[in-house]
Amino acid sequence: MLAFHDDNYNLLAISSQEDLILPFNQKRHSELFGQVVRSEPRKEEGEIEDIHTGYVRHLHDPQTSDYRNPDGSYIRGNNAEEARLDPLTLQGKSDHSVVKLPSEIAKTINNNILSLRVPSLIRERAAEIYQALEKEQIQRAPVSGLDSDAYIAALFLQDYANVRKVLVELQKRVDTFNPDSVLDIGYGPATGMVALNELMGQDFKPSVKDAYIVGRRNSEMKRRAKIILSRQPCEVEAQAAVSGKKAKDYVGAVDTRKIDVKTNIRDSLSSESKYDLIIVNQTLLTREHSFPRDVDVNLEMVLALLNPGGHLVLVERGNPLGFEIIARARQVMLRPENYTEEKGKIPRPYIRGSKPKPQKLRAEDQLITEEHIKMEEELLRKIQAEEKGVEDEDLEEHLNSKYGELSEDDLKFEDEGEVEVLDPLESHKPSYDGVDYHLSIVAPCPHHGKCPLQLGDPYLYKVRNHKHRFSFCSFNNVVERPKFTMELKKGKKLASLWDKSKLLKTERKAMEGSGRPGGNNTELADYSYLIMQRSPNDEASIKKIESDREHSSSVEEGPATWPRLISFPSKIKKNVKLDVCAASGNIETWQVPKSSGKQTYHDARKARQGDLWPLGKKTVSVKSRFSEEGMARLKSMAKLQRNIVLKEKRKKEWKKMTVKDPALLEDDSEMDPATLNNIYAAKFTSTKKYRQQTRRHDFDK
C-alpha cells in the first residue's frame, strides 16, 4: 500500500485530462497518449510539475505478495521460483545452481601451476587424457609432473563440481552434518577436501583432515595439492592467510616445502584410524577387466575406516562403467538378494565389518540337530495319542496314577544350590553378541532393494545390434569455466567439430551468430553417486534395528522414501510425466495432471532431474525389468562379440609379426624356401600362445 506525502491530493477530483498533472499523461509530439514512464530530462527543464513523487511504504501496511514478508524478503526459498513451491517440494529439491570454482583457486592454478608449462604440451596431453577416458571410461593415476598438470587442467574442474554437488545433498539430508574427522581418497589434488572446505566455510576446523592421493609416483600431485589447499582460509593459520597484493598476483613456481596446511597428505592409509566422513572419488576400480574384484577389495578396506554414525560418499563418472561400480558397491553393502521381502530403509548388517560374526555351526558341533527335533515331535505325537480323550479336570489324577505324586524335591532343578551368582559389573563379556556394523542409504535411492537398472557387467552396455537401449542412473551438473579452462580448450586439438551438413535447417538457424557449438562459459558434467551412513553400534541402536526388521511390513512415509526423478519431466498438455525410482524398488512413470491441483501441477512442471517428489500422483505405470531370458541372450551375444574382437586382434598382431622383418618385404630377395621356413618357424615359436600351448601339453619333455 502506497502512502503519498500530500494528503490533500485526490485523484478522483480531477475532471479532465487537461487538468491531470501526472507525468505519464503529458502530451508529447501531438500524441493522444503521453509517455509511459517518467521523463527525467523534461522534469529537470521544468516542463513537468511532479509534486507527488515522494511516497513511502509503511511497515504496518499489509504485505503485497503471498510469498514475501513485509520487509520484502522471501517467506521460503532463496529466489522467486523457490518461494512459489510447496514446503514439501522445496524440502525435496536438489541443488541446481551453477557451480563456480573460487577465484583464488582458479587464479592459483593458472598462475602457479599451468603457467609453468608450454600451453601446446598441456593441450596435447589433455587430449590424450580425454581420448583414454572416452575409450576406457576410467581415470588413470598421473605419473609425471606434466601428467599432473594436464590432469588438473582437464579434469579437476568437473571433479570438484561433482563432489561439491554430492556434499551439498548430504548436508541437506543430514541436519547435523559436521564431521570431526575427514578422509579424502582420489587421484587428483585432494579434490574432495577442497570441495568440503568451500562448502563448510572458513570456520571448518575438524580435528583430523587426511587426504590420500592414489598412485605409486604421486609426489608431483601432492605438491600441487598443497598449493591449491593453501589458498583456502580454513587450511592455514590466520596470520599466514593474510597476504599482500604482490603474493596474490605472483606468477611462477612455488616452493611447497614452505607451505603448511592442516590437511595431512598421507603416503598410505592406516588401519587404526577412523573417520566420520570418507570421500572416495573415482578410485574404487583401477582396471576395467578387474571388475568387480577391485570394487569389493577397495570397498572393504574403506569401510573398515568408517566410524559408527559416519558417512561414506562414493562419486564416479556418469557413464555405464561408473554406474555399475556404484551399483556393485551398493549390492556388496546392502545384499538386497537376502532381504527380498523387507520394505523401507532399515539399516542392513555388514558382516565383514562387524567384530562379532554370526557363524553357522557344523552338524557335529550342534547341540540340537534335526534328528533331535524329529524325535521330540514323534514322542509328542505318541503322548497325545495315549492321552486322547482324557478330560482336563481328570488330567492331574491321570498323571498321578500313572507316574505317582510329585514331592518338593522333584520340583527343584538338578543344579539348584550349586549355581554361582555372578556380578554383572564384574563381567568382561560384551552385553551384546550380534552384528555391530549396519549401513543404510542416505541418497539417492529411496529403497534398499535390488537396483532396477543394474546389469552386473559393464561390458553388456557395449553389445552391438541389440534391440534394448539400457539406461543407467546418473545426474548432470553445470559448472562455470574459469580462465584456465577456456585457455585450455582453444585451438583445434580440443575444439568441437563444426559440421553443418549433419545439422537440420532449424538447428543451423538456431546456432547462427552463436559461434562454435559449446563455446559458452559453462560445461556439463555427469556423475553417479552413493551416500551411505553407518548406524551407531550401541546396544540400544542395534536392538531397535532388529525390532524394526521384525515389523517391516510397511514403508514409513518421509523424505528418506520419497521417489527421486531419474530424468527430466515430460511436459505435455495439462499433464506432466515423471520417471522416478520409487520406494517399491521399481522404475515407475508417475502422471501428475492439472486436475491434481494448482500447487501440485505447478510444482511438477518445475521439477528437475535429481529432485525428490513428495506430492503424489494421479496414475502410475511400472516399467518392467529386463527378463532372465533376455539377460541370458545378452550375455551370449556379449561372449560372441568378445571372441570376435579377440580374433581380429590376433589377426592384426600376426600380420604385424610376419611383416616385421624388412628382408621379407624385398621383392628381389633371393632367400630359398628353407631359409624363409626357418624365419617363420623362429617367429612362431617366440609367440606367447606357442609357449602357453607348449607348457600345457608338455612338448618340451
What's the short version?
The protein is of the alpha/beta class and 701 residues long.
Alpha-carbon distance between the termini? 105 Å
How many H/I helical runs? 21
**DSSP helix fraction:** 25-40%
Number of DSSP strand runs: 17
Integer-rounded radius of gyration: 36 Å
* CATH architecture identity of the domain at 99-353: 3-Layer(aba) Sandwich
Unreliably modeled segments? 1-22, 29-35, 419-431
**What CATH first level of the domain at 99-353 would be assigned?**
Alpha Beta
Mean pLDDT: 81
- Given the helix and strand composition, which structural class is it? alpha/beta
User: What is the 3D form?
Assistant: globular
Largest β-sheet summary: 10 strands, mixed
Proportion of β residues?
Answer: 5-15%
The CATH topology of the domain at 99-353 corresponds to Rossmann fold
